[in-house]
Amino acid sequence: MDKMEVIKNIIINNDGIAKTTDFVAEGLSNYDVANLCKEGYIERVRHGYYQLAGQEDIKEEQMLAALLPESIVCVESALFYYGYSNFTPRQWSIAVPRTFSRTRLNIGTLATRVYFIQPALFEIGKTSGEFNGVQLAVYDRERTICDCFKYRTKLDNEMFNKALNAYATDKRKNLSNLSGYAKKMKVYKKLMDVMEVILNA
């Protein structure tokens, strides 16, 4: 099998984007990768990541999964995912740990709104969901509602109110988790003052 065929298979097996380390693991050298890039067979997506030249545009979801696998879909994007917001986000709201490398977030082809989370709170409510056929990490309903209170100043009133009302009528809500997360995230009092009114309405 020639090098082009090997590279093609690696990229296909990695959902359209492969890392230099994926190629090296299959016996190719950095020199091979650089040459195939120069010849126009593969294209650099960003430093260390490649796709086949001229392939159909990769879905944003695939790009997020490949380039920022540690990130978690949150706030505006999570509200939209759960049907708590009708507003289609123009960019992906993602959470990353505070220690995350800022340079890795420079992805020209992917619009992101990044929330830097302290490590102790990062994993709270982390789950996974299917976005346009791609599995991504996303915060669950309860964490998303807690985040609405934590980032209240970043959300407009309409989005905030719609989210809380939609959550209150959601049969899959878990009030025990909501109160547990709210305590850990130090938004318990604010959250309970509002949610009690909505839930008792």
Structure characterization notes:
- The protein is of the alpha+beta class and 201 residues long.
- The chain has ten helices and eight strands.
- It has helices at residues 3-13, 20-25, 30-38, 60-67, 75-81, 119-122, 141-150, 157-168, 175-184, 188-199, and strands spanning 18-19, 42-46, 49-52, 72-73, 92-97, 112-117, 126-131, 134-139.
- Strand 7 and strand 8 (134-139) form a beta hairpin.
- Helix 7 (141-150) packs across helix 9 and helix 9 runs antiparallel to helix 10 (188-199).
- The protein is elongated.
Which sheet architecture does the biggest sheet show? 3 strands, antiparallel
Compute the gyration radius: what is it? 20 Å
For the termini, the CA-CA separation is 68 Å
Q: Approximately what portion of the residues adopt beta-strand conformation?
A: 15-25%
Counted beta strands: 8
If you average the pLDDT, what whole number results? 91
- Biggest sheet strand line-up: 1-3-2
Stretches where pLDDT is under 50 for at least 5 consecutive residues are none
Helix/strand order, N-terminal first:
HEHHEEHEHEEHEEHHHH
Structural class given helices, strands, pairing? alpha+beta
Task: Record the SSE blueprint.
Elements: H1 3-13, E1 18-19, H2 20-25, H3 30-38, E2 42-46, E3 49-52, H4 60-67, E4 72-73, H5 75-81, E5 92-97, E6 112-117, H6 119-122, E7 126-131, E8 134-139, H7 141-150, H8 157-168, H9 175-184, H10 188-199
Parallel strand pairs: 5-6
Antiparallel strand pairs: 1-3, 2-3, 4-5, 7-8
